[in-house]
Design brief:
This protein is mostly helical. It folds into 2 domains: 85 residues, Rna Polymerase Sigma Factor, Chain: A; 72 residues, Winged helix-like DNA-binding domain superfamily/Winged helix DNA-binding domain (Arc Repressor Mutant, subunit A, Orthogonal Bundle). The protein contains 8 helices and no strands. Helix 2 crosses helix 4, helix 6 runs antiparallel to helix 7 and helix 6 crosses helix 8. The longest helix is centred in the C-terminal third of the chain and has 28 residues. The relative contact order is 0.10.
């Protein structure tokens, strides 16, 4: 890329704004989107389906990506919409568990993985107490570590609104953690 730079050191627009291939986007961002969808309240059993929905949108619209934001921000905004759509219709198509898998034998999980799963369940439960707008800002900033400008772009709100939502989400998160800790001590 350095050879393509002009005398000012900047890349020509054609190089600076090259759209990656779908395969590159999938390879580089599938794990990020998987985590993001889980953090946005998509049940573990449904994450694969919703992730596929996200990549269907990406496949259809990748050529239309305008570079007004980073690719990661654009992908996250698609994930927000897909997760929201899924949660709205999820009550209609909940899976009913069957007793068929009870007879299957499984190895006992290690204590560390049990503790990790329990912590993730607690985190998901606390994140479920946040409304969608606060949850999206909290997850993007605190968990996915995007800049606040990228967060505002991804959720489609002014920067100050994003900061306000983050502040409110942090307060709600702290209160939920304190309630959970008090409940744990009481049991």
């Amino acid at each position: 890329m350095r050879a393509a730079a002009d005398m000012t050191g900047e890349l020509p627009p054609a190089v600076a704004h090259a759209v990656p291939s779908f395969a590159e986007v999938y390879r580089d961002y599938s794990a990020f989107l998987w985590r993001a969808l889980r953090s946005l309240g998509v049940r573990e059993a449904d994450v694969e389906d919703v992730c596929q929905e996200v990549f269907l949108v990406v496949h259809r619209k990748l050529d239309e990506f305008t570079h007004r934001s980073s690719l990661r921000t654009w992908l996250y905004s698609i994930a927000i919409r897909c997760a929201s759509d899924h949660r709205r219709r999820a009550h209609v198509k909940r899976e009913a568990p069957t007793r068929d898998s009870i007879d299957a034998s499984v190895d006992a999980p290690q204590p560390a993985s049990v503790a990790e799963r329990q912590a993730l369940v607690v985190l998901d439960g606390i994140l479920d107490t946040l409304d969608d707008a606060k949850r999206a800002v909290f997850v993007l900033y605190e968990i996915e570590e995007l800049t606040m400008a990228e967060v505002a772009e991804a959720v489609g709100c002014p920067l100050q609104t994003a900061y306000s939502r983050l502040h409110a989400a942090r307060d709600a998160f702290q209160a939920a953690v304190k309630r959970h800790q008090a409940k744990e001590r009481a049991s």
